[in-house]
Design a protein that fits this description.
Layout: H1 18-28, H2 31-36, E1 41-42, E2 53-54, E3 57-58, H3 75-80, H4 84-104, E4 111-116, H5 136-151, E5 161-167, E6 180-181, H6 185-201, E7 207-210, E8 214-215, E9 218-219, H7 225-228, E10 239-240, H8 246-252, H9 260-270, H10 283-294, H11 300-316, H12 336-348, E11 351-355, E12 368-371, H13 393-401, E13 406-409, E14 413-418, E15 424-426, H14 433-436, H15 446-449, E16 459-461, E17 467-471, E18 477-480, E19 486-489, E20 495-499, E21 511-516, E22 519-524, E23 531-534, E24 537-540, E25 552-557, H16 559-568, E26 572-578, H17 598-610, E27 614-619, E28 633-637, H18 644-653, H19 687-690, E29 708-718, E30 721-730, E31 736-746, E32 757-766, E33 771-779, E34 785-787, E35 792-794, E36 798-805, E37 811-819, H20 829-832, E38 834-835, E39 841-843, E40 845-849, E41 856-860, E42 865-874, E43 879-888, E44 890-896, E45 901-907, E46 918-926, E47 929-937, E48 940-948
Parallel strand pairs: 3-4, 4-5, 5-7, 6-8, 7-10, 12-13, 12-26, 26-27, 27-28
Antiparallel strand pairs: 1-2, 8-9, 11-28, 14-17, 14-25, 15-16, 17-18, 19-20, 21-22, 23-24, 29-30, 30-33, 31-32, 31-36, 34-35, 36-37, 38-48, 39-42, 40-41, 42-47, 43-46, 43-48, 44-45, 44-47
């Protein structure tokens, strides 16, 4: 008898439509199995041959957290390239390596959490390095390119499944799970939603991750915008993955819900499909879902909807079609092509901010002194992979100019710490530890050092150890032993020389010197405890058990002295300054100032005093406000990954003409900045779109070693938008890239509009004397704004300028077109009334949640006083009453056109809760078109205003 082949289950039949296969598998799963799939670490379903699956693999600029991988420039550096083709190729390389790493380690996930499309609204945001630009159009263009590279170009199967971070209006780390971003409708639609919308519409996005913060008083993890906006932009089943720990935050820190079952149900109903909570332990999430079902807070349909979206992504990744998956056998990893691409990306990310007197490029044979705290560093950030290759500026310049032409001075202070007993802190040598902790290339391996407790702790003796001390700003210090190991504190509290670099979720390698008596206390920033010298070694005591040692700081050499010596003997000095991505500005920590740390300012002054031919290279995750008066040359690059040093040296030498452009405004001082929590880019005139001051360097700025001429502008309307053409000619003597930028501006707007807004750009390579005729198409929607009176986008009729040039402020050509558009009409208040959040202008208010599920209301900031303005309200033939829906207590004053108060509507004290609205009315008389002014006083929430005859 012949054995029969078991039938192929429909979900494994590649001939069937995807939706049919997903539904078939979903129907075969039991309720318990479906609930288990809601956690980030979804277990295997062995009876169906379904493997375990994990949502989430960090891949911001290379595969992260999973060991060695190609490390590309930080995201803000990729944004500075203004080059979508390059970024798409980077995405391809990253996803290819993810597949190759997955083949040998199934912990590597294919649902990648990248890119970050949060806009770089405020340069003090600690995670500035993770975004692409302050402009929504440029951000979406770069993000779309990266997601297309991550996805791959197969019509059915995806190489990886990208998830955009972090939905929505997330631009501060300070109390990030407690703060609410007040986002008025125009800012919501024209700014914050736009970067997500355009990237999702491009079709290469698998999902999004909500942010920790609240928007308009409501946590992003229960945001109605997930369904109202996000899922209307595509027909794909988008997967929404929670951020780590955020589901629990809904109760534990935000106190938005009373129980975790209620919070979990609300998140699922709002559209969250995968819960990243409690690490690998899924039991709490499972228990919360089961409780929510038992309490009728959820239905099985809610669970099925989320599981269906997860399964859809897994099918697209080829999990159930291994033989047909074109990416299943990918093995390309750390290839020569990937290394070359990392270098190309690092070169294209360099921005030449200033170059006077022809100091750059450096001539052959130039004697170069390279100095500064970052001169011999190749820094990684929280979302980097482990370096396979590395190149520091010093190494790059050695390679390019020869070791005989390059001198080096790091510029750290060389210090000893003396105890009251006259002894000094001493780093003890660990037998064999040095060799054990070094790789084949001789570099210290952080994986073998960080957190080790088997290395000997510091002691104190008569000689002591001279330590390299660096001040990274705000008094935050690192100390390094002569062999390169950083002082660090492990779980047992002892201080050891046991870290290759500062790092970790809680950085254990930073300290502060606090003046005390005739010396200093040394406080460890990671634990908050003070350092003391004990019989068994140097340690940080637990709170309440401290007997801190008072140290005297004995300086053997100031860093600026070493810098001055090196600078004096060179033809040119290259000062490499900037930040360590794990210190003073990173995830969980915003910056406090735009200024360069005082230590680095001292080094720069010393170099310039010794040698005026000084180049400042800022290598940083964010902008700085630096005084560059009299400084001949200034460059900026984000931390450039594994090829950073080689790329910088090639730019300095002129092998590559720089063509990076600033993806965000560089402000001149802290005084130019709004509050970190002020998300109203229109009202407080933020970013290049609205900023009316003089920036240090404007958005889109960047110089070249070439010269370019713009001419022949032609512009005119065409079906669906505007056509613009102009010619760019390289009038210089070397091949170079130019980034041609096109901006639009409403000439006579009736509402506040951007001073100018990026509409298109093109990066072109031109040989000397060559020209390129650029033809750019600007869609009609690029001229639209969100009309709060109508609750939709509208193009206003009138004149619009087209500005072509080399930056937002370097405009070379200007043309004008007239668009028909749609004329403004007065607000139909008799039909729609006034939703409080749809104001034209405001003072002293913020938007909050009208109810937990949906809706907006307005409240005075700090329960004080505020005012709302609604322009051009049409009362028709007349009204006799005004009615408000409000909660809380206080009063609402109604007036017209800034005149006297016509009615006061008081809310009695003792209204039960913030969502318990009451309706109040008062007699008023109004006819025709008027501006409505509403004065708000007290802890109230105003939701809606209506009128009747």
């Amino acid at each position: 008898m012949t054995a029969q082949t078991p039938p192929v289950l429909p979900f494994r039949d590649p001939r069937l439509p995807l939706a049919r296969r997903v539904d078939d598998l979903l129907e075969r799963l039991t309720l318990d199995e479906r609930i288990a799939l809601l956690h980030q670490f979804a277990p295997a379903v062995e009876r169906l041959g379904v493997a375990a699956f994990r949502t989430g693999q960090e891949a911001l600029h290379g595969v992260a957290w999973m060991g060695p991988a190609t490390v590309f420039p930080q995201a803000v550096g990729l944004g500075a390239t203004w080059n979508e083709d390059l970024v798409r190729r980077v995405g391809e390389a990253v996803s290819t390596e993810a597949r190759a790493m997955r083949a040998r380690d199934d912990r590597v996930g294919l649902n990648v959490w990248a890119p970050v499309v949060n806009l770089l609204r405020h340069p003090l945001w600690g995670r500035n390095e993770e975004g692409y630009s302050e402009d929504p159009g440029l951000t979406s263009a770069i993000a779309t390119a990266y997601t297309r590279g991550l996805r791959g170009d197969h019509p059915v199967f995806w190489r990886t499944a990208p998830v955009l971070k972090h939905w929505l209006a997330h631009n501060n780390e300070t109390e990030r799970d407690l703060t609410s971003s007040s986002v008025r409708p125009r800012v919501l639609h024209e700014y914050d939603l736009r970067a997500f919308r355009d990237t999702v519409r491009a079709g290469a996005v698998a999902g999004v991750m909500p942010a920790y913060n609240l928007v308009n008083g409501r946590p992003n993890h229960v945001s109605p915008y997930l369904e109202e906006h996000l899922r209307t932009w595509t027909d794909e089943d988008l997967l929404v993955c929670s951020d780590a720990g955020a589901p629990s935050n809904l109760v534990d820190s935000e106190h938005y819900f009373d129980t975790h079952a209620e919070a979990t149900a609300a998140a699922l109903r709002a559209g969250v499909d995968s819960f990243t909570d409690h690490g690998t332990d899924s039991s709490k999430t499972i228990d919360r879902v089961r409780t929510a079902l038992a309490e009728d807070l959820l239905s099985e349909d809610d669970i099925d909807r989320a599981v269906r979206r997860q399964l859809s992504v897994r099918f697209r990744l080829g999990e159930f079609d291994p033989e047909a998956d074109p990416y299943a056998h990918t093995r390309d990893f750390d290839t020569p092509a990937h290394r070359a691409l990392a270098q190309e990306a690092a070169e294209q990310a360099v921005v030449l901010l200033k170059n006077e007197g022809g100091l750059l490029p450096l001539a052959e044979g130039t004697r170069v002194a390279v100095v500064g705290l970052l001169a011999d560093e190749c820094k990684l950030d929280w979302y980097s992979g482990t370096l396979i290759h590395r190149s520091t500026p010093l190494e790059g310049l050695y390679e390019r100019f020869g070791a005989g032409h390059v001198t080096f001075a790091e510029g750290v202070d060389r210090v000893r710490l003396r105890t009251p007993a006259g002894t000094y802190l001493t780093v003890r040598e660990a037998a064999g530890a040095g060799d054990e902790a070094r790789g084949a290339d001789g570099a210290l391996d952080p994986a073998l050092l960080a957190g080790r407790t088997d290395l000997p702790p510091l002691t104190a003796d008569a000689d002591g150890t001279e330590l390299a001390m660096a001040d990274w700003g705000d008094g935050v210090l690192t100390f390094r032993a002569p062999d390169g190991r950083y002082l660090s504190v492990a779980d047992d509290g002892y201080v050891r020389a046991s870290a290759d670099q500062p790092g970790g979720w809680v950085v254990q390698e930073t300290f502060r010197l606090e003046p005390h008596a005739h010396g200093h206390l040394l406080r460890h920033t990671g634990t908050g405890g003070h350092v003391s010298v004990a019989a068994d070694g140097v340690k940080v005591a637990a709170a309440g058990e401290e007997h801190p040692t008072v140290f005297e700081l004995v300086v053997a050499e100031r860093g600026e002295d070493a810098v001055a010596r090196a600078a004096a003997g060179a033809d040119v000095v290259v000062v490499v300054a900037g930040n360590d991505p794990h210190i003073n500005g990173r995830e969980t920590e915003d910056r406090t100032t735009l200024r360069l740390p005082a230590h680095q300012e001292r080094l720069l002054r010393a170099a310039r005093a010794a040698n005026p031919r000084t180049v400042l290279v800022l290598t940083s995750a964010y902008p700085y406000a630096v005084d560059h008066t009299g400084l001949p040359a200034l460059l900026w690059t984000a931390h450039g990954g594994q090829a950073a040093g080689t790329a910088l040296a090639r730019v300095l030498a002129g092998d590559v003409s720089p063509a990076g452009r600033l993806p965000q405004t560089w402000y001149a001082s802290d005084a130019d900045l709004p509050g970190l929590l002020d998300y109203d880019v229109i009202g407080s005139r933020q970013t290049y779109l609205y900023f009316e001051g003089t920036p240090l360097f404007p958005f889109g700025h960047g110089l070249s070693y070439g010269d370019f001429r713009y001419d022949g502008l032609e512009c005119g309307t065409e079906d669906g938008g505007v056509r613009v053409a102009f010619t760019v000619t390289n009038t210089g003597d070397r091949t170079a890239d130019e980034v041609a930028q096109l901006y639009v501006r409403a000439v006579d707007p009736s509402v506040p509009r951007p001073r100018r807004e990026l509409a298109a750009h093109r990066r072109v390579t031109l040989a000397p004397g060559a020209s390129a005729r650029l033809v750019l198409h600007v869609p009609q929607e690029a001229f639209a704004f969100w009309d709060v009176a109508q609750g939709r986008y509208r193009v206003a009729p009138g004149a619009y300028e087209l500005l072509a040039g080399a930056s937002s402020e370097d405009v070379r050509l200007t043309g004008t077109v007239r668009l028909g558009g749609e004329p403004a009409t007065p607000r139909p208040v008799l039909v729609r009334g006034l939703d409080a959040a749809d104001f034209d202008d405001q003072r002293g208010t913020e938007i909050v949640d009208r109810a937990k599920a949906a809706g907006d209301a307005v409240t005075p900031v700090g329960a004080g006083t505020g005012e709302l303005l609604f322009q051009d309200c049409d009362f028709g033939d007349g009204v006799a009453r005004v009615t408000v829906e409000a909660a809380g207590e206080g009063e609402i004053a109604f007036s017209l056109n800034g005149g006297p108060v016509l009615a006061v509507l008081p809310l009695s004290p003792g209204t039960p809760g913030p969502y318990d609205y009451t309706t109040l009315s008062a007699d008023v008389t109004a006819a025709g078109v008027h501006d409505v002014h509403l004065g708000l006083r007290g802890p109230l929430r105003l939701a809606h205003v209506g009128f009747s005859g």
